[in-house]
Specification:
Radius of gyration: 20 Å
CATH architecture of the largest domain: Alpha-Beta Complex
Bound molecules: zinc ion
CATH class of the largest domain: Alpha Beta
Shape: globular
Largest sheet: 7 strands, mixed
Distance between the termini: 12 Å
CATH topology of the largest domain: Quinone Oxidoreductase, Chain A, domain 1
Number of helices: 12
CATH superfamily of the largest domain: Medium-chain alcohol dehydrogenases, catalytic domain
Length: about 375
């Protein structure tokens, strides 16, 4: 165990992350110490860093990370789904826990539990023991019941790629009232959330068109490898041209389901215009407030559209993500290719800048040998 452990600390938007060695203490009762394997840079981390999602520091960012259980405190040794944990096992780390008891939890909306924010671990100050609360650190000390054991046959470098984007889409699709089998689906956005949406929808029988950007040449290539029938590049097409293409591929009536994964407010009016009557618009990617945008509200009534939001996910959704990955080993090489950038924890600031600039498809912080 490296002692002390490097951690990247967020103080306030616009200020550089502070890299500080923090003491690695013994895990308290019902806690475990986890040695970092990798920690994903999420769009949400960029939003916090640039100030479009208002959070107050100091804290160690990072909410999509996995590592190896290195030491456990006394007491509870069961993970979030009741699996017994052992030293040396790979785990993903949850940073929130639904209460199980509020009206949302009782009616199946536990990803939007009314008390979720109260359980958030990683926004605690590093001054507060056991200090290492978030994913941008070489070590994390977490409540044991927040850990999620990986299936033993699932490689860490495959599981880590869509560790947040994957279950985010699994949850969003749960809210879709229809079936994916035989459906025409449009995915807006070619970041990790959009790419996983293509992978999931195509492997559940949908015909998928991605609307994305070729800002990185691998994006269209991965979309096709993941099962997209078409990739419409926003750099070389305009909204009317894309609408014509979607109409032509859906017998002139529009898509059954459009999944918004871009985070751009401008995607919303375009997405509504791509739907067939009674079509479903699933907004899963608007994680920061980009402001208001005019939408053709008459179309919602006139075409009897269904507009749905989805936020967060639960451990059950992440387990479904793990189980899905185990069914597509032939795509593991392509999934690994999604990670275009890797950084040590001490370069967390550079990692955020790279993602913010749009240069990376997926960037990870990784433990150094
Ligand atoms: Zn995330
Ligand atoms: Zn609840």
């Amino acid at each position: 165990m490296k002692q002390p452990a490097d951690a990247a600390i967020f103080h306030r938007a616009g200020a550089a992350l502070e890299i500080r060695p923090l003491p690695v203490v013994l895990p308290p009762p019902a806690h475990a110490r986890v040695q970092l394997v990798s920690s994903g840079i999420c769009g949400t981390d960029v939003h916090i860093w640039e100030g479009s999602l208002a959070l107050t520091g100091p804290f160690i960012p990072g909410h999509e990370f996995l590592g190896r259980v290195e030491r456990m405190g006394d007491g509870d040794r069961l993970d979030c789904l009741g699996n017994a944990l052992n030293i040396g096992e790979l785990v993903a780390v949850n940073v929130v826990e639904p209460c199980g008891d509020c009206v949302l939890c009782r009616e199946g909306g536990d990803a939007s539990c009314l008390h979720l924010i109260e359980t958030l671990t990683y926004t605690r100050s590093p001054a507060e023991p056991p200090h290492l609360h978030g994913g941008f650190a070489e070590v994390t000390i977490s409540p044991t019941r927040f850990l999620h054991r990986l299936p033993s046959s699932l490689p860490a470098d495959v599981a880590s790629v869509f560790l947040c984007a994957g279950p985010t889409i699994v949850r969003a699709i749960r809210y879709h009232p229809g079936t994916l089998e035989g459906a025409s689906v449009v995915v807006q956005g070619s970041g990790p959330v959009g790419l996983f949406a293509v992978l999931w929808a195509a492997h559940h029988g949908a015909r998928v068109t991605m609307i994305g950007s070729s800002s990185h040449p691998l994006r269209p290539e991965l979309a096709v490898l993941f099962g997209a029938a078409d990739f419409l590049d926003i750099r070389s097409t305009d909204v009317p041209a894309r609408q014509r293409t979607i109409m032509e591929s859906t017998n002139g009536i529009g898509a059954d389901l459009v999944i918004e994964c871009s985070g751009s407010e401008h995607a919303c009016p375009e997405g509504i215009g791509l739907l067939r009557p009674r079509g479903v618009y699933l907004l899963a990617g608007q994680y920061s407030d980009r402001g208001a945008v005019p939408i053709p509200v008459h179309a919602i009534t006139f075409s009897a559209l269904q507009i749905l939001g989805s936020a967060q996910f639960t451990a059950v959704d992440r387990q479904a993500y793990f189980d899905f990955l185990l069914t597509i080993p032939e795509l593991w090489p392509a999934i690994r290719q999604t990670v275009t950038h890797r950084f040590p924890v001490r370069q967390a600031e550079e990692a955020l800048r790279t993602v913010h600039a749009g240069d990376a498809i997926k960037a990870l912080l990784e433990a150094q040998a």
